[in-house]
Specification:
27% strand, eight-stranded mixed β-sheet, alpha/beta, 15 helices
Length: 550
């Protein structure tokens, strides 16, 4: 449908704001006509926002439902790594995400997952080999190679890793990075990936400090400022936008449904402007840089571009009044105009329910045991050595010291439960469990006692995936039947259910801002320092199993 849109046009290219009327013709911007004597109360017209690094699966919503919620906040596109579902269902999982995303007027750009499985120290549900990755990169719908998490493989020029990088280069598609903590010559070697003087791996979203990010910027890498439900690096990195507006993007990485209901990239824009950063630099990062870097067919308010744009009431809070994608109105005044429909299911879940005895661990006389220290707002953990609490010859949780038992249960086959201990969850009663456990998505659980641990895990197994919470007053479970990662139901209903179970966990003492999201990263071996996989306790610095599961 052809129509016109009038407002204060924010021209990021020329750094000008002026009243104009945009003529939308067949989904594209046919013309932009400046206006004279226009009302100063006209809304602002901006390009739509882009999340430049997100795992849709972590929203617990299928792409269709993610889009319904995101457009309300002015998001028109995402650069999405589907490696969560790929680790569960392989190629069929990636194809599921692409096809589901096509069912809505939203611009999903999925990458070819580079590390499935992420490591050999865990059990995943599928493998994507070099041929699979090369085949995905030939698809028009796949514009990039997803985050290369195996940074040791890059540094040591592992042949499989290098073949995947070469496949992306042959296809002329950029390569996303994942290099937490790499500095100096190691950072340079990772970015150059065996080609001295060239930027081969061109983005990173894992910088914890501005000093780390500056190291990578120096070698030509672009930095994605990540602000998700668990990992939050905005405050540490946003100052870089002042001096590097062409090399910064915004991403959420992992965002739970309640958080997505509250806001998206628009929130980062508001926070950046509040810190005094020039609005044009902010919008360069939020709208323009992802399009240029990934060569995305997303409009940027130029004649001939797709009419992907938003209307906001201001340039401080970025309250979104309307969102258009290809000229179609998809959200207005806080209401999504994308219809809610259920989606097909796909899964890979093959373990039986557990017994309480599976969660018992004999004490072997250790005076100190390794303990994972969770850090709120970070994916990285610390390694502690603490004296254990024992009862009747068994290691048990110690809520008085906030040192609780953590378990990882193989969901793809029946196997021994991997057990260790974790500090800083705050849980004082009961247990929580989740089949969202990066990156292999086995079941991860933390509990105050073995009975609660077992019950929470079995609730997830009964549903063939989900998140659960068990306490003295009862239990709750949010089913996630799509790969054990996502619900196919209405996104707003899922967000309400998640809020309820999150509230229950916090009522049981959980002190983390996003306890289920943080829990999901306790099995993510590619982030230091100490994590737990279904195969045992893993030392991320030495990159080896510290305590293999029996």
């Amino acid at each position: 449908m052809n129509h016109t849109i009038t407002g204060q046009l924010v021209d990021i290219w020329q750094k000008k704001i002026y009243p104009a009327t945009i003529a939308v013709v067949n989904g594209k911007i046919g013309s932009i006509t400046p206006l004279e004597n226009a009302s100063p109360s006209l809304p602002f017209i901006l390009p739509g926002f882009i999340d430049s690094h997100v795992h849709i699966e972590s929203s617990m919503l299928v792409p269709r439902q993610f889009a319904r919620l995101a457009v309300v906040h002015g998001t028109v596109a995402t650069v999405s790594d589907p490696h969560e579902i790929a680790n569960v269902c392989g190629m069929k999982g990636v194809e599921y995400m692409i096809e589901n995303g096509k069912s809505v007027p939203f611009k999903f750009f999925f990458g070819a997952p580079s590390c499935v499985p992420a490591t050999v120290f865990e059990t995943a549900g599928a493998t994507l080999d070099t041929d699979d990755v090369a085949a995905l990169l030939q698809k028009e719908e796949i514009p990039y190679l997803s985050e290369m998490m195996n940074f040791p493989g890059v540094l040591f020029k592992d042949p499989v890793v290098m073949k995947k990088i070469q496949a992306a280069r042959a296809a002329g598609k950029p390569i996303d990075g994942h290099a937490p903590g790499l500095r100096g010559e190691q950072a340079r070697a990772y970015i150059e990936a065996g080609e001295p003087g060239q930027v081969i791996i061109s983005t990173d979203h894992e910088c914890f400090t501005s000093e780390e990010a500056l190291d990578k910027l120096k070698y030509g890498m672009k930095i994605i400022i990540r602000e998700g439900s668990a990992a939050r690096n905005f405050d540490a990195l946003i100052g870089l936008l002042n001096d590097h507006p062409q090399q910064i993007m915004f991403g959420s990485d992992d965002k739970h449904p309640d958080s997505l209901v509250a806001g998206h990239i628009n929130q980062l824009c508001a926070r950046a402007v509040e810190k005094g950063i020039d609005v044009f630099s902010v919008l360069q990062a939020a709208c323009v840089n992802p399009v240029l870097h990934y060569q995305l067919p997303v409009g940027l308010l130029r004649t001939g571009d797709a009419a992907d744009l938003i209307l906001t009431s201001d340039l401080q809070q970025f309250q979104v009044l309307k969102t258009y994608i290809n000229g179609e109105l998809v959200a207005e005044n806080g209401t999504s105009l994308i219809a809610s429909q259920t989606s097909a299911l796909i899964n890979n879940f093959n373990c039986r329910k557990k017994n309480v005895s599976d969660f018992q661990r004999p004490w072997n006389g250790e005076t100190n045991i390794p303990v994972i220290e969770a850090l709120d707002g970070q994916l990285i953990t610390n390694k502690l050595m603490l004296p254990p609490k024992t009862i009747n010859g068994y290691l048990v949780s110690d809520p008085d010291r906030d040192v609780l038992k953590i378990a990882v249960v193989n969901r793809y086959t029946d196997a021994t439960v991997a057990l260790s201990f974790i500090k800083n969850t705050g849980l004082q009663q009961g247990a929580i469990a989740s089949s969202v456990a990066h990156d292999s998505h086995n079941i991860v659980a933390v509990g105050v006692d073995d009975e609660s641990l077992c019950q929470a895990v079995n609730l997830v197994i009964e549903q063939q995936g989900g998140v659960s919470c068990v306490g003295p007053q009862g239990a709750q479970v949010l089913p996630l039947p799509v790969a054990g990662l996502m619900s196919a139901e209405d996104g707003y209903v899922v967000a309400q259910s998640y809020t309820a179970i999150d509230t229950m966990a916090k009522a049981l003492g959980a002190t983390l801002s996003a306890p289920f999201m943080t829990l999901s990263f306790m099995a993510l071996l590619v982030i230091p320092h100490l994590k737990l996989s279904d195969l045992g306790l893993f030392d991320g610095d030495a990159f080896k199993l510290l305590e293999p599961a029996p």
